[in-house]
Amino acid sequence: MEALEVMNPISGDTIGFVNTTPLHTTTLMYDQARKAFNIWQNKSIKERLHYISKLKHTIVEQLEEGIDIIHQDAGKPKVEAITADLFTVLDTIAYLEKHAEKTLKIQKAKTPIALIGKKSYTSYHPRGVVLVISPWNYPFQLAMNPVINALLAGNCVILKPSEVTPLVGQWMESLFEQAGFPEHVIQVAHGGKELGAKLVSEKPDYIFFTGSDRTGKMIQQEAAKHLIPTSLELGGKDPMIVFQDAHFDRAVRGALWGSLTNYGQVCMSVERIYVEKKIYESFILELKNELQKLKTEPSDDADLGSMTFENQLQVVQNHVTSAVSKGAKIFSGNRSTLHEQKGMRIEPVILTNVNHEMEAIQEETFGPVINVIPFENEAEVIQLANDTRYGLSASVWSKDLNKAKRVAGRLAAGSVVVNDVIITIANPYLPFGGIKDSGIGRYHAQVGLQIFCHQKSIMVDRGIKKSEVNWFPYEGKLPHFKNFITSWYGKRKNVIKFLSSYFQLLRKSK
């Protein structure tokens, strides 16, 4: 059996190995999941919640261990491990404990006047076996949240966590075991892209993928061959728009955190900062000043961690090198530090004199690179912000909330924050997802459970009448149907004429 090497991205040292899942076992995994589904789907929401709540308590009991594992495996500061990965999962479970039963219960629906006498409702039913493929940047949160929702909706799940952060994947597997989930209801498959492709080819009933738009499109193409529904949470190139009337210090600190939290390895990272010209020079000076205050040496209080995936270092280097060759200026940082890192820790870079012809502005960098661009007016900055193939999230900064909301409404993004950054994904009451190349579908909130279900529309008639007005024979019915429509939907509603037409149709249907 092959093993995944676990490297601490901060030190560069090997800290362990995790056994991979053999490719030939994937068919068996699906067979086991489908058998387990026959039992799991018949459990009530309350019964499923029992396991989810036990999982929550298990996570809390192992909080210190979880912080250390995420810190060592992903190279992120411990504060970010607990706030962005662990807390958000626990908060999602708390939301589901409160709202899951209501969200998935039978929903009554109105019945139109033409179908009088019938009742309508919608019911939710699990899809079957859900495949969740999760990324390395938030290896706990972006795996656990879709898995928990899928399980609670009544599905069995096969999770393939990222091979870049295998310790977190191994820990998640252990958490589900300790929470006592029935055998094969949740299975974890460890391995790389070959395993991911094999799992997709096994025709799951639903695919939830978080990762690059390139891989997402490949999965979508494969899923389309068998009409497998998917949710794709992909990349971003998020703009931050700072108007001159914004709270200056807050905007600077928000820009710094939004650009460098998790070392810039966030699909919602602030990757393009647009600053109104009147405050542009003072903004970049203060941004540089605040950057220099950050604690970078490894400790429990460190502000910055490291890159997580070695291949991403090359992307960061290419974007910076290309931008500089086309006229960009390194306002803070040193290009040479991209080559002189210990482990995967590199110095953050602030780029100025950048434009929309550069990769650093058009393509997802996913690293500690801060691009700052001046703008003249509202119309210009909206055009610049929307000039990208991505559309995940954005932020608008201004004390004039009417203006901020107006601009937010015109931005091509799945979510927008006013006077803050990134936080929409942390609100379990809000649906999350992108447009354009940033993905397909939404999760979190009510839709986060409902996407993992078939929606079944049901109408009920008591079955007392011999016939319906729209059934055969049609003889003599056309004039009455015309009166039926004109009296009810015409400019002037005529209830008496409508009822007369309806009763005439009833007589002809006896």
TrEMBL record:
Domain Aldehyde dehydrogenase, first and last residues per copy: 3-458
Keyword Ribonucleoprotein on entry: no
Keyword Oxidoreductase carried by entry: yes
CDD domains: ALDH_DDALDH
GO molecular function: oxidoreductase activity, acting on the aldehyde or oxo group of donors, NAD or NADP as acceptor
Signal peptide as annotated in the record: none
Entry keyword set: Oxidoreductase
Active site: 233, 267
InterPro entries noted in UniProt: Ald_DH/histidinol_DH (IPR016161), Ald_DH_C (IPR016163), Ald_DH_CS_GLU (IPR029510), Ald_DH_N (IPR016162), Aldehyde_DH_dom (IPR015590), Aldehyde_DH_NAD(P) (IPR012394)
GO biological process per UniProt: aldehyde metabolic process
Domain of life of the native organism: Bacteria
Protein family according to the UniProt entry: Belongs to the aldehyde dehydrogenase family.
Official protein name in the record: Aldehyde dehydrogenase
